[in-house]
Amino acid sequence: MDTFEHPYYKLNKRLLVLIGQWPYQNLNDRFFRRCIVNIAFYSFLITQIAVIYMNRSDIDIILESIPAICVSLLMIIKYYTYQIQRKNILLQIQNLLEHTISNWGIWETQEEMDIMQKFASEGRFLTLFYIIYIYSSEIIFLILPFYPRLMDIIVPLNESRPLKTIIRAYYFVDEEEYFYSIYFHMGIVIMIGITVLIASDSLFLVFNSHICGLFSAIGFRLEHLFKNPIDLGHSFDSRARKMCFDNVVHSIKNHKRALEFADLIETSYSVSLMMQAFMGMIGVSVSLFQILMLLDKTAEALRFVIFASAQYVHLLCICYPGQRMIDYSTEIRFNAYNGLWYEAPIEVHRLMLLIIRRSIEPCYLTAGKTFVFCLETYAKIVQTSGSYFMVILSTH
Questions:
Q1: What are the tens digits of pLDDT across the range 333-372?
Q2: pTM for this structure?
């Protein structure tokens, strides 16, 4: 059975196939889907650049356009995450997927398999939660342009309220006359962009849950090195000594595999996450400013509330996995120390020291090797975006 046809990963595979990022799909099908995504992204980005160019002397319109441009660039960055490091756009994701498949075959006990299944189930839950949250926000966002029509029914005026596009853009035509055509284009682009966002982020969360499961299973084996009283030191015969030695060696090999997988995640996502964090911080700062400026315009203010909320959640989805990698990679030394290692033969003590010393240094998820993603970093990013918001407010 294909590992990625399992319910744990099936949804992630379907999302990647949908956007043409699944390494094993038909080449023609992948090329076609990638063309659709690229046309959608760049056709929308042109309208965003055009609105800034046409209103280059109006700082209010430029500030209003910045969050949408940041989100557009963020989605493009996500789509090309695997092209940043290497020429082959799918080589890194293929390596990660192959590592994930092979890591399921290294466990020997049911308890270790249960731990891996627990974390895989957690990855699936995060994917479902993320899909529900993002698509729910998107539906609200797509409904907002029709708020004036709703108000015409509730509080009618002598004339109809004008319809406004989802996002300020310049389409080189009369926006009122071609409102529904523009709305259709924006809706399709947003739907494709959100799908790219979900596919990329959910796969990243699944990889993160998988590496945490690896570290947790390794720690479990070290903590329960001796399952039965007969395993204790005074009863060791040559066979028991060899089994104990082999168990520790097995744990060391698995730990090495986990470190390699963590390094592969770091290599694949480091530069991309740095750019995403930067775009998210700018988007949050400008969105907060726009919310303050549009407090008297409910529908427009709500649009930027959704922008800011989505960026906060997205930044959390970057920083929290980094914190988990730190926690689970360093927890191994406590698991090893909590086991009955002192009852083991002296040669096992020496092997245990190797894994304890290595686990003192945590596995990090960094932003281009400049700073580490963790909850403390998330707090600093939120604080910095607030500072930028105050700077924009004071200069405006």
A1: 888 888 766 667 777 777 788 888 888 889 989 987 888 9
A2: 0.83
